[in-house]
Design a protein that fits this description.
By secondary structure, this protein is an alpha/beta fold. Helices cover 21% and strands 29% of the residues. Strands 4, 5, 6, 7, 8, 9, 10, 11 and 12 form a nine-stranded antiparallel beta sheet that branches. Strands 26-25-27-31-32-33 form a six-stranded mixed beta sheet, sandwiched between helices. Strands 38-35-34-39-40 form a five-stranded mixed beta sheet. Helix 4 packs across helix 7.
């Protein structure tokens, strides 16, 4: 916590995740560190300040809890809230970290147009406590490729759960599972202690049966055993994991059903808030949620799974991630990372194993590149010939994975997956190595190496337009190979390249820089907005970058400029690489030529709303429109967080993944909502921005 001036305030920074949040004050403050254990909720750091009035930089909600952490007031943007004298913890939402204010006095919550004023009459001081949302694995399990040994390793994933109650559906109560590595013998560290939940998952002795249960075993704290058929056992009761549509689909349904009903049941505890999904579930099932809340996990699971999935299917949130993992023992180390995201895991056939030879790529790439899109413009971001670009750098099989109904899709294995990100064990490990503590400012590098593409240079102005986040933006033009190598080695959050990529590498003023010659890259994420940039982007990942966006074909300059600007805007509003590209592809078919390499979970900054939104707007009368919102989980707001849109008359919370429903609003109310935060808006076939949108002409 550091004091800031102009305006006065207190900046809170999470040095691990690089998140920032500012509390504004009326006069200078000097934070004095205090013992974090003085807070009843767990916090990593705490300080006391002498301010008794605060303002947030944008709209937030808050929960006011008494000294026993029971909710005494829910504060929303729709009305002023006042709580009489007492001892209170004020929990602020959408702050990019767990943020608590402790006060002895009154609490007054006053929402404005685009900020919230908090005042504490009668208080002499204010205590601020912060907890990072980041979690590190506690230990590493070594396993052989023996299936019994792997089952033992998977049985330990639940040791990371901070509770076996239904509150583990909150991401902050799910620690990162222990890592798994392959070795000559099975070794489980003594420090790990798997919970005794009374749940056992039995699967046949096949790798493609063990991999898909990783997330379910972790979430249920289950013991995994090798058996004759896939079954889930809960204290003497059994449920088949091989339904009519197959094993993998059944496992995914069980995970989603238990998770959803945990989210509903937990509203009987500390988070007794009006949850939209609870209303939907209660209308279709006969479950006694107050009684369920106090039952052991195994009993809850038994009662949950006796409800037909079809009865609750409409209330299940859109899942964040589907991971296609080729069932090979080399992929075992990715399982804890996928379980951490509660990913649906599928085991496809190896697309490169066709007759033992590499597939012919030309038809795939040629059909992917539709020359009819050129129209009257032939200027592409490549100086190579068409024959050179058809398969340049694509020395692996290009294929299309089976579609998934999740927000994001990733692939682990050989080959190049169209429509999904490509991950490896090394890239998942890199998540744990990342440390943003060396800087509190978000650093952006923009390089334009072709004057004819200067229209995209405006992205240097788009990045950094977020208030209350410190940015350091460097824009360079016409750089040499040595200068580009130095920039790529620099410690930076994002690198946006505008120019040409040719068979020899990234084109510079004095030749080409081949990224495969780089031994170390300091940028975390990147966009190589050039033709056929896959191989160069892949090399940047291999040299140390976390994630990036590349192209698989030629791209027209006009198209690339439009997409480059949109990418900058979406990343600047808190979208991850994968969710951003998924949204873009739905509105611009030419964005199909782009894909994510490396970690698609990477974000540039956090959204003001916690999980970023997209909106869809349709007019139904002269002064009335419908607004639909979609929420996207991120690494700092994983699935299971709750969110509430700042709309008049809306007092419901939602699980932060997928559609929030549709609202009928007056034109004035919609305009006021769009003034609070810049969000992407789908109107007809266009992707627009709330700050630029003229609602009256829709």
């Amino acid at each position: 916590m550091t004091a800031v001036e102009a305006p006065y305030g207190l900046r809170l920074a999470d040095p691990i995740e690089g998140a920032q949040f500012t509390l504004l004050t009326q006069r200078p403050v000097t934070p004095a560190s205090i013992d974090p254990s003085t807070f009843a909720p767990p916090v990593d750091t705490a300080a006391v300040i002498t301010a008794t009035t605060l303002e947030t930089p944008y709209q937030v909600d808050a929960l006011v809890r008494d000294d026993e952490l029971s909710i005494v007031a829910e504060c929303t943007s729709s009305e002023r809230t006042a709580v009489g004298p007492g001892e209170y913890y004020v929990e602020l939402s959408s702050a990019k970290m767990k943020l608590y204010l402790y006060v002895e006095g009154e609490v007054v919550f006053e929402p404005g147009t685009d900020q919230v004023r908090l005042s504490f009459p009668g208080a002499s001081e204010l205590r601020v406590g912060v907890r990072s949302l980041h979690e590190q694995p506690a230990a590493t399990i070594t396993t052989t490729d023996d299936l019994e040994a792997l089952a033992t390793a998977l049985s330990q994933l639940g040791s990371a759960l901070k509770t076996t109650s239904c509150e583990r559906s909150f991401p902050t109560l799910r620690g990162h599972p222990p890592l798994i590595e392959r070795g000559p013998e099975l070794s489980v560290p003594a420090a790990l202690s798997a919970p005794e939940t009374g749940v056992t998952i039995e699967v046949p002795p096949r790798l493609d049966a063990l991999l898909p249960i990783a997330s379910l075993a972790y979430y249920l704290g289950a013991t995994v055993e090798i058996g004759s058929r896939p079954m889930l056992h809960a204290d003497g009761w059994s449920h088949s994991l091989d339904g009519d549509d197959g094993f993998e689909a059944t496992v995914a349904r069980v995970l989603k059903q238990v998770f959803l009903l945990d989210c509903v049941t937990r509203t009987e505890g500390m988070y007794d808030v009006p949850l939209y999904e609870r209303d939907r579930v209660e209308a279709t099932v006969d479950l006694d949620f107050p009684a369920l809340y106090d039952r052991p996990l195994a009993d809850q699971v038994r009662q949950y799974l006796q409800v037909p999935y079809e009865a609750i299917a409409e209330a299940v949130p859109t899942w964040k991630l589907t991971a296609d993992v080729v069932p090979e023992s080399t992929a075992l180390p990715v399982l804890p990372f996928l379980a951490d995201e509660l990913a649906v895991v599928r085991c496809p056939d190896d697309p490169t194993a066709t007759d033992g030879a590499k597939a012919d790529l030309s038809p795939k790439v040629t059909s992917f590149f539709d020359t009819s899109d050129r129209g009257g413009e032939a200027f592409v971001r490549s100086t190579a010939t068409r024959s050179e670009t058809a398969t340049r750098g694509l020395d692996q099989t290009v294929f299309t994975p089976e579609p998934a109904d999740s927000i994001e899709q990733t692939y682990v294995g050989e080959g190049i997956p169209l429509g999904a990100s490509k991950m490896s064990v090394e890239e998942y490990d890199r998540r744990l190595e990342f440390d943003a503590s060396s800087r509190e400012r978000t650093r952006i590098l923009v390089v334009c190496n072709d004057p004819q593409m200067s229209d995209e240079n405006v992205v240097g102005d788009i990045y950094g337009t977020r208030e209350w986040i410190e940015f350091d933006i460097t824009t360079r033009e016409q750089v040499t190979t040595d200068e580009l190598a130095d920039l790529l080695a620099a410690d930076a959050d994002f690198f946006h390249y505008i120019g040409h990529v040719d068979p020899d590498g990234i084109r510079c003023t004095d030749g080409h820089l081949d990224a495969e010659t780089l031994t170390e890259v300091g940028v975390n994420a990147f966009l190589l907005n050039a033709c056929q940039s896959y191989s160069q982007g892949r090399a940047l990942i291999d040299a140390g970058a976390i994630g990036g966006i590349v192209t698989l074909t030629d791209v027209l300059n006009k198209t690339a400029t439009e997409i480059g600007r949109t990418v900058a805007r979406l990343l600047n509003q808190g979208f991850s690489l994968l969710s951003m590209l998924g949204l873009l592809k739905k509105r611009n078919r030419l964005a199909q030529r782009y894909m994510v390499v490396g970690d698609g979970n990477e974000t540039l900054v956090e959204s003001e709303s916690g999980s970023p939104y997209s909106a869809t707007v349709n007019r139904i009368s002269e002064d009335e429109l419908t607004l639909s919102l979609k929420s996207y989980p991120t690494k700092n707001y994983p699935i299971g967080s709750i969110s509430r849109p700042h709309l008049p008359g809306i007092n419901k919370y939602y699980i932060n993944s997928g559609e929030f429903g549709s609202y009928r609003l007056s034109q004035t109310d919609l305009e006021e909502f769009f003034e609070m935060q810049r969000i992407p808006v789908v109107a007809g076939e266009q992707l627009l921005w709330s700050g630029d949108l003229q609602v009256d002409i829709l």
